[in-house]
Amino acid sequence: MISRRKLVLGLAGAAGAATLRQALSPSPPRAVAARRALKLPIAPSGWPFPGARVVAPSALFPADFGVRRIYLDAGHGAPGNTGNLSCFCVEEQDFTLSAARALAERLNATGRFDARVGRTGDRPLPYQERAEDAARWRAEAFVSLHSDVRGRIETWSPAPGRTCPLSLAAPGFAVLWSDEGDPALCALRLALARAFARRMEEAGLMPYRGAAYSGLYEPDAAQPGVFVDRHPPDQRIFVLRRPSMPSVLIETHHALDAREAARWTEPATLDAFAAAASAALADTLGGGAALADTLGGGAAPASQPPT
Length: 307
Description:
The chain has helices spanning 4-11, 20-24, 29-38, 92-109, 127-136, 183-202, 238-241, 258-263, 267-285, 288-295; strands spanning 68-74, 113-117, 141-148, 154-159, 162-166, 174-177, 217-219, 226-229, 247-254. With 307 residues, it is α/β, with parallel strands linked by helices. It has a single domain, classed as Zn-dependent exopeptidases (Aminopeptidase). The strands form 2 sheets. The protein has a 7-stranded mixed beta sheet with strand order 2-1-3-9-6-8-7, with helices on both faces. Helix 4 crosses helix 9 (267-285) and helix 6 (183-202) runs antiparallel to helix 9 (267-285).
């Protein structure tokens, strides 16, 4: 079990900062759990501290943008695959379903998107079915939502009688993509990945730098928080290489960091993320100058044979 001293070292900030309890109250249930369990001084100087401000980026829609179909994949929830267990003992499949529903509601409210959550939660859904469903529905982008786990894992008790994993070393989001397959499709995947990361950073969310990704993902030279899949060919991520439309996987946050996991229960964070997603999709699907700016004049790396 992680000691109080280590929590203080991980969560403490500069003198004169608010306490976690003050910064998170009033707040959703998981943030309340963190407030009650930790009660530690912190510095709200940047993400993921509670005082760090998030904002809603502005989307620029071309006149002919219309209404675009976006397939939202609530990550995991496949047969035998529930995903990680968060620092609040929440299964990843439950977090991603909640996050995907929240994002769909907000995207649809713009009037610019018809966003659909592929997994309903009533049964485990194989990944092949998700890709086929998105293709039948004629989705124009496939966005898979996840949370990540990184760093040395210890344990803590966010509530009486409950022991959950904890790691405070590596907060931040990551946007993953694949360079396998048709070069034109790869270029759109890269554009979508860069747009999501750029807009999420603009919203005030922090890109992960990738220390734990060595040998698994290669960082993008142009945009922090973007990584291309470099697993062995037979282990590469299905939803990045098989959908027939541009696809990305977003590791929204580090699920074992109590500060960041608590922030992702806040409506303000979900609002900012949805605005970033809307802007990123407009940048990519709208084409023209916005797409050129997102690609930065570069091209996708050389494609590799699909597996």
